Amino acid sequence: MYTVIRVFTILIWLHNPTQHLLRNRTNFFGSFSPVPLKVSLVLLQNVIKTRMQVDGELKKTQNVGEQMQSRYYKGFVRGSLRIMREEGFSGLMRGAVPGTLRDVTYSGMRIYLYEPFKNVFGGGVHLHEKILAGICSGGISSFVATPLDVVKIRLQVKGERRYRSLTHGLIDVGRNEGIAGLYKGWAPTMIRAAVITGSQVASYDQIKRFLIERDYMNEGLALHTVASFCAGLIATITTSPVDVIKTRYQNTPAHLGIYSGVFDCFVKSVKAEGVFGLYKGFLPNWMRLGPHSVISLLMYDNMCIAFGLKPI
């Protein structure tokens, strides 16, 4: 994986080194600057999203109605209130440290790498070039942040806290499960990130171009807001099933042997809960990805405009 990252980095620089040097500093700070604000707004949705995704895991039900009735967390609002009633407000903040560090690493990198990868794939004139750029930037960024994702998920699920802190979590997983444990679920994590960036950033780019070329809207705050809102919805629809499988697989310690692999997790989940089970936690996921898309993409584009650079 390291070799792949290095090869892509070299290709990006060789493709247009002058332009890359001119844009590098502003794009770097522009891609990472929205992260603190975004994290502060979506962190509270993260815990309930994770718990709804593992709620009733592998519990066989006859239909959607029965599945809804058997849930411990019955929806976003009622589930959040239940967490606060049982664990206090701190229950909604579980996994805040690894979650924040993970978002700073992953979210910043994937937006920062999108434009260079788009240039590598032909400049982003066609939709497939934008999707490929999003897939590469998202996949690489998520792989780097996988250990933080594993600890974050295990801290967020209901029950006794497994780890005292992020550091304790990383050390404990590394000691008991090895490097494989720290990178458990790296494949679905990369797939999810590739899908989310390929759908979110690429659709944002495509929607902007569509509205501008047909003179519906001009480059500016209104256009960025509309395009980023639509991109957030598209990303939620496409990534929710992958996110559920990723969460369940990473949450399960290897020694329990519940799932033999990612595909086994997918098959068992669908067999027990149906396709609807793959969309558990959809609302909190959208409430997380919606602000995520609007804040990240809107701030990045407007910072580029402020510094005289071309936005996405």
Features of the shown structure:
single chain; 312 residues; 13 helices; 75% helix; 0% strand
Structure in words:
α2 packs antiparallel against α6 and α6 packs antiparallel against α8. The N terminus is likely disordered. This protein is 75% helix and 0% strand. It is mainly α and 312 residues long. The longest helix has 31 residues. The protein contains 13 helices and no strands.
Helical stretch tally:
13
Ranges with pLDDT <50 over ≥5 residues?
Answer: 1-23
Instruction: Give the SSE string.
Output: HHHHHHHHHHHHH
- Described by the principal axes of the CA atoms, the overall outline is globular
Distance between the termini: 27 Å
Strands, total number: 0
Rg from C-alpha positions?
20 Å
**What structural class should be given to the helix and strand makeup?**
mainly alpha
Instruction: Please summarize the sheet with the most strands.
Output: none
Helix content: over 70%
Could you tell me the mean pLDDT?
81
Strand content range: under 5%
